[in-house]
């Protein structure tokens, strides 16, 4: 986003606190007017004011989340709703302290990620407008602030079928999981609010009141990839701004070590579970299922991003498996010899595989990954695969064999690529037009539906529905009593006449 905004002539200061040792930021910022320091020093430059400052932070080891693989606590929807907020917020607490050092800076607008709320409170302290962004496709509790109705029935929850196949138990499951999801989202935000107030030393406006002040809400959804959901003009979908089709088609030469691997067999499968979830931390029974698949498909080569050198584990693998601590993912996906991508379903990888035209076996681990997996699978070029079924080597083999040999996955993946390549509005242009509009009209609120400001009962017309239902039942009951009396009166009158 910083590159795109700077390329359109705006002065941009990028602030990314390096209290976590992120190695994947280097080389991402291309515009020469944006300066980002090393992982220990962050240089902030504002060209308009010709001033800069350096924030020094203590870098610690990058946090990973191995418990999301198979922990019965973290994978239970009820326990997860209470445990996940506190666990994730503990990783964000340090940022609230770092951003306090930016108060002396002078800016026109702040653009802040809405998972981490400190930017909104900083904007409030500086009396600046703040535009919220979401690196995921959606975060229901924030979408609701900008007038988007519930996505239940439009987006499937884990364990539910979508309409028209959905039945009563699917809808009950949707309600159950939706309530729990909104609960943990709200708890995570409330915990951050507490940390911020403790850091500042006084109460601050509620996070909901700060976020909904913006005229727009920028999400990483692409309407031609995402599920079709009701929305409002205030929610701006810019999914795909990180994708450069020309660059993806010419991703550069592969390192020489990969050439003989790709030439070994007719088909090659790339396996990567991202940077937060590590393959070497995968439970042994999951690994055993993968090994059984490797052995059952000797005519397929596998390149597996495995982040740890483990000679003993390598001895268990057949010759068609190649472990690498790091892989040139974009270059491999651009190569025709790679037939399938096995991914955890992070949105970055989901976008990348969608724009590469490659079939994908998506194995979501946690967070937004299940939604991303189902979002990609609905187009027909991917399969959403339950992580607990990794231990079932036979099922995994059948699934992989079908994806490698059945051309329908390749055809559907290519069809999706054609759609994304020809979408009517370029995501980068969509971002800039709405961003500049929001900066011009920072106080615009008219595009949030007025009904969004009423309570739950009035919003869903429950009082009117209840009134009609009660009135209808009373009318039916009254008509019934009246009809019952008519024959009695008629017979009584007839008897008198005789």
Structure description:
- There is one protein chain.
- This protein is 43% helix and 11% strand.
- It has 4 domains: 1-62, no CATH class; 78-241 and 427-446, Rossmann fold (3-Layer(aba) Sandwich); 245-421, Rossmann fold (3-Layer(aba) Sandwich), CATH 3.40.50; 456-497.
- It is globular and about 105 Å long.
- The chain is an alpha/beta fold.
- The model is unreliable at 37-60 (pLDDT under 50).
User: Quick one: CATH class of the largest domain?
Assistant: Alpha Beta
**CATH-defined topology of the largest domain:** Rossmann fold
Query: What percent strand?
Result: 5-15%
Any idea how many domains? Answer: 4
Low-pLDDT stretches are 37-60
Distance between the termini: 95 Å
Number of strands: 12
By DSSP (H or I, 4+ residues per run), the number of helices equals: 18
Global morphology = globular
Mean pLDDT: 83
Largest sheet: 6 strands, parallel
Strand order within the widest beta sheet? 9-8-7-10-11-12
Oligomer: single chain
CATH architect. name of the largest domain: 3-Layer(aba) Sandwich
Order of helices and strands: HEEHEHEHHHEEHHEHEHEHEHEHEHHHHH
* Helix amount: 40-55%
Protein name: glucuronosyltransferase
EC number: 2.4.1.17
Pfam family, one: UDPGT
Subcellular location: Membrane
């Amino acid at each position: 986003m910083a590159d795109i905004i700077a390329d359109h002539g705006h002065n941009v200061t990028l602030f990314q606190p390096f209290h976590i040792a992120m190695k994947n930021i280097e080389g991402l910022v291309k515009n020469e007017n944006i300066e980002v320091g090393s992982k220990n020093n962050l240089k902030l430059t504002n060209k308009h004011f010709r001033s800069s400052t350096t924030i020094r932070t203590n870098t610690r080891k990058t946090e990973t989340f191995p418990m999301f693989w198979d922990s019965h606590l973290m994978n239970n929807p009820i326990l997860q709703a209470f445990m996940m907020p506190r666990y994730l917020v503990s990783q964000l607490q340090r940022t609230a302290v770092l951003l306090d050092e930016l108060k002396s800076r002078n800016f026109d607008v702040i653009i802040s990620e809405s998972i981490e709320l400190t930017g909104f409170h900083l904007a409030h302290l500086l009396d600046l407008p703040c535009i919220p962004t979401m690196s995921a496709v959606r975060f229901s509790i924030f979408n609701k602030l900008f007038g988007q109705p519930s996505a239940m029935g439009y987006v499937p929850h884990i364990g539910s079928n979508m309409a028209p196949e959905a039945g009563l138990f699917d809808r009950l499951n949707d309600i159950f999981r939706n309530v729990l999801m909104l609960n943990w989202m709200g708890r995570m935000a409330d915990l951050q609010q507490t940390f911020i107030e403790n850091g500042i030393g006084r109460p601050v406006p509620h996070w909901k009141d700060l976020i909904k002040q913006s005229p727009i809400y920028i999400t990483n959804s692409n309407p031609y990839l995402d599920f079709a959901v009701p929305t409002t003009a205030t929610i701006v979908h810019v999914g795909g701004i990180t994708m450069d089709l020309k660059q993806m088609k010419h991703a550069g030469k592969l390192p020489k070590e990969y050439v003989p691997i790709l030439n070994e067999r007719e088909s090659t499968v790339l396996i990567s579970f991202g940077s937060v979830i590590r393959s070497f931390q995968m439970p042994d029974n999951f690994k055993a299922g993968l090994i059984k698949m490797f052995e059952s498909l000797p005519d397929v080569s596998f390149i597996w991003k495995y982040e740890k050198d483990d000679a003993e584990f390598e001895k268990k693998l057949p010759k068609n498996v190649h472990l690498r601590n790091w892989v040139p993912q974009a270059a491999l996906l651009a190569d025709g010899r790679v037939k399938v991508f096995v991914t955890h379903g992070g949105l970055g990888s989901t976008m990348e595989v969608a724009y590469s035209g490659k079939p994908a076996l998506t194995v979501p681990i946690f967070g937004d990954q299940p939604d991303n997996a189902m979002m990609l699978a609905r187009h027909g070029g991917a399969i959403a695969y339950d992580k607990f079924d990794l231990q079932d080597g036979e099922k995994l083999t059948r699934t992989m064999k079908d994806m490698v040999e059945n051309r329908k996955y390749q055809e559907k993946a290519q069809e999706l690529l054609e759609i994304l390549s020809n979408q009517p509005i370029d995501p980068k242009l969509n971002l800039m037009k709405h961003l500049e509009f929001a900066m011009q009209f920072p106080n615009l609120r008219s595009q949030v539906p007025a009904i969004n400001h009423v309570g739950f009962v009035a919003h869903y017309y429950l009082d009117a529905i209840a009134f009609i239902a009660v009135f209808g039942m009373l009318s039916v009951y009254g008509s019934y009593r009246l009809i019952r009396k008519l024959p009695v009166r008629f017979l009584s009158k007839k008897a008198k006449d005789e």
